[in-house]
TrEMBL record:
PANTHER family to which the protein is assigned, alphabetical: 3-OXOACYL-(ACYL-CARRIER-PROTEIN) REDUCTASE, 3-OXOACYL-[ACYL-CARRIER-PROTEIN] REDUCTASE FABG
InterPro entries: 3-OHbutyrate_DH, NAD(P)-bd_dom_sf, SDR, SDR_fam
EC number: 1.1.1.30
Sorted UniProt keywords: Oxidoreductase
GO molecular function: 3-hydroxybutyrate dehydrogenase activity
Family to which this protein belongs: Belongs to the short-chain dehydrogenases/reductases (SDR) family.
Pfam families in the cross-refs: adh_short_C2
Top EC category: oxidoreductase
Protein name: 3-hydroxybutyrate dehydrogenase
Phylogenetic classification of the source organism: Bacteria, Pseudomonadati, Pseudomonadota, Gammaproteobacteria, Oceanospirillales
């Protein structure tokens, strides 16, 4: 059997200046896709160019910026086939002390922006009769942990958005899936280790072993490239029958 080259597609990926988003952009560029990488951090420009992608700077907590990002993809490439909602932030504090502005920022970025980007991308996918929406959720879309009320609420909401998009897209050639990683070795996790150490009164190494990997059957952090491979599959031709699903890549966390 000979492997066939993937059909080149146009993809918009958010949250691309580091971590999972950077790995997804690299993976898509290697597949021959045309990619618009979207991030509020100007460092994303160099990261995108190194991979062979175009870059658009946008703070996705702003609804108009979400719409502008999709418009930029359409202007540059003529249409849009793949949307990966990946940008995310974290704030760790108990509900009692959780700052309202952090709650709103997290919901805006991690739930409202994926909705607005999906809405803006939809007509082009519908007209092309082909679309792939991949939402980077989290194991925290399936289970909760203390101190992460906004993040966990946003990620649980993202599963609802994914399922609804899957039902609406079924007759239009558009699939929507969520992926649910456990801890991935990225700057987002590096920053959390110190916060969690404070929250639990632990040393940082203890946080990795006793908090982050406590429920994992495989005792290691995940590499961003492993997550990018799963995103790549869900965005491919081969995944045409797969929709409305939540894909765990969680080291066995939720197997118990
Ligand atoms: P990361 O910090 O490396 O990447 C997040 C990206 O989002 C960065 O490029 C950042 O600049 C961008 N971003 C932040 N605020 C933005 C804004 N307002 N507008 C536009 N871009 C913005 O983190 P990561 O771990 O690669 O996280 C990527 C996604 O994966 C997030 O949604 C996160 O919740 C999810 N996730 C991460 C892990 C993990 O363990 N790292 C586990 C499960 C899910």
């Amino acid at each position: 059997m000979t492997a066939t080259a993937p059909t080149p597609r146009v993809a918009l990926v958010t949250g691309t200046s580091s971590g999972i988003g950077e790995a997804v952009v690299r993976h898509f560029c290697e597949q021959g896709h045309q990619v618009l990488a979207v991030d509020f951090n100007p460092a994303g420009q160099e990261v995108a160019e190194r991979a062979g992608a175009a870059f658009f700077q946008a703070d996705l907590t702003d609804g108009e910026a979400c719409k502008a990002a999709v418009q930029e993809a359409l202007k540059r490439f003529g249409h849009l086939d793949i949307l990966v909602n990946n940008a995310g932030i974290q704030h760790v504090s108990p509900i009692e002390d959780f700052p309202e502005d952090q709650w709103r920022r997290i919901i805006d970025l991690m739930l409202t922006a994926p909705f607005l980007l999906t809405q803006a991308a939809w007509p082009s996918m519908r007209e092309g009769g082909w679309g792939r929406i991949v939402n980077v959720a989290s194991v925290h879309a399936q289970v909760a942990s203390p101190g992460k009320a906004a993040y966990i609420s946003a990620k649980h909401g993202m599963i609802g958005l994914t399922k609804t998009a899957a039902l609406e897209g079924g007759s239009q050639g558009i699939t929507a899936n969520a992926i649910c990683p456990a801890y991935v070795k990225t700057p987002l996790v590096d920053n959390q280790i110190a916060d969690q150490a404070k929250l639990h009164g632990m040393e940082e190494q203890e946080v990795i072993e006793q908090v982050m990997l406590k429920n994992a059957a495989i005792k290691r952090l995940i590499d961003p490239s492993e997550v990018a491979s799963l995103v790549g599959y869900l965005a491919s031709e081969a995944a045409g029958a797969v929709t409305g699903a939540s894909w765990n890549i969680d080291l066995g966390w939720t197997a118990q």
